[in-house]
Automatic annotation (TrEMBL):
Gene Ontology terms, MF aspect: efflux transmembrane transporter activity; porin activity
Organism: Methylobacterium radiodurans
Protein name from the UniProt record: Channel protein TolC
SUPFAM superfamilies (alphabetical): Outer membrane efflux proteins (OEP)
Superkingdom per UniProt: Bacteria
Coiled-coil ranges (or none): 164-215
KW Flavoprotein (keyword) present: no
Keyword field contains Transport: yes
Family according to the record: Belongs to the outer membrane factor (OMF) (TC 1.B.17) family.
CC annotations in GO: cell outer membrane; efflux pump complex
Record's keyword terms, sorted: Cell outer membrane, Coiled coil, Membrane, Transmembrane, Transmembrane beta strand, Transport
Subcellular location: Cell outer membrane
Entry-linked Pfam families: OEP
Amino acid sequence: MVLRRSFRECEKSLCARSAAFGLASVAAASLSPASAETLESAMAKAYGGNPQLNASRALTRVRDEDVAIAQSGYRPTASMNVQAGVTQQEGSLEGGTRQQLLKPASAGLVVNQTLFNGFQTDNNTRRAEFGVYSQRETLRFTEMSVLFNAVQAYMNVLSDTATLELRRNNVEVLEEQLRQTRDRFNVGEVTRTDVAQAEARLAGARADVSAAESALRTSIGIYRQNIGVEPRQLAPGRPLDRYVPASLDQAVAVGLKEHPQILSAFHAVDAAEAQVKVFEGTLYPTLSVQGQVQQAYDQQLANTSGYAASILGRLTIPLYQGGQEYAQIRQAKEQVGQRRIEAEQVRDQVRAQIVDFWGRLEAAKARVIASQAQVQANEVALNGVREEARVGQRTTLDVLNAQQELLNARVNLITAQRDRVIFSYGVVQAIGRLTVRFTAVPVAAYSPKAHFDQVKDLWFGVRTADGR
């Protein structure tokens, strides 16, 4: 009787520790609030240092230069030509020969300015600007993906840590139960079968601990990949319910209006339409003006010089270029149609993703409630089975099974709590609002417009603007 009482007290202690080991409470059990890493601070680290996001920012700065390149068509071009050398001339004249050593040299400046080119420069600039806008939306989508991956990595480390601790506690309970079962076997209260069942269950629990340790190591590696640091003292993660719309219809409406993939696709349509106008501009006349100044020395005779200056206007009217320009126009129009179809496809994909995450979030909420009820019911059942086993109405296997069901229920609760947090962020991502501007992540927001404003009107210079 004394052995049974000590075993029961051990079970109560360990089960209490396991029951308190919910996803939120256990993460903060051994932490001081000042030193704990929060979900928001982890997202801030990912926002500032994630290589994928930084590469997308760099690509956005690359696209900014397309506008400066297109605007060069508005500006004049200038070139200077300088020549210098030595010329030996020999010739025959009446009564003899003549030799002359010349040192010809010349310097000239040529300036060209396009006055009209069928609005090609205007449309090239518009096309480049639409490309910049499209890339900015792609950058925003990358930002949302990086932040969502950070949330998943953070919550997976939390849940895997909680699961590992539950399984380790389970091993302690089973070790104690095996010891008590052997003691009872020695005094003839149970059979060798009961001992073997307890041994088998303990071996399985130890294997589960090894699997949980492996899963945690994997989650830590993914955390390091997405956030850039090793996980240390993670605080509880909480759902992002304040940014989740009140209904699925509202979520779909917001997503179709604001999702960056949709906006990027429609900017691509605008860029394709501008490209059509660029090709149509090749059918228009081109008007330009050229100014030239030249100073020359020793061109024909020694010790002579000459000066020339001119301003010329040039009008070029294309008549027929083999049909290439017409084919390019038709091709560009087909690309406009392709981009429009792709934009509608993206809208459908976004809508489906919103519905998917909304359903997952609702299911996770229901699973949390059901899992909590399941844990409570299994706790009552386990206590009852133990009491019945104490008076001989239940076997050791019944106790082991009841304990395993309680463990599974607690693991399911941890998983449901994790999914509850992740899918709330998933809904916010699906509608296009999982950015630092919406979620109040404690970090300075990156502004792609800063670099664009720095370079769009530059006339010269090879140093790259900071713009970060």
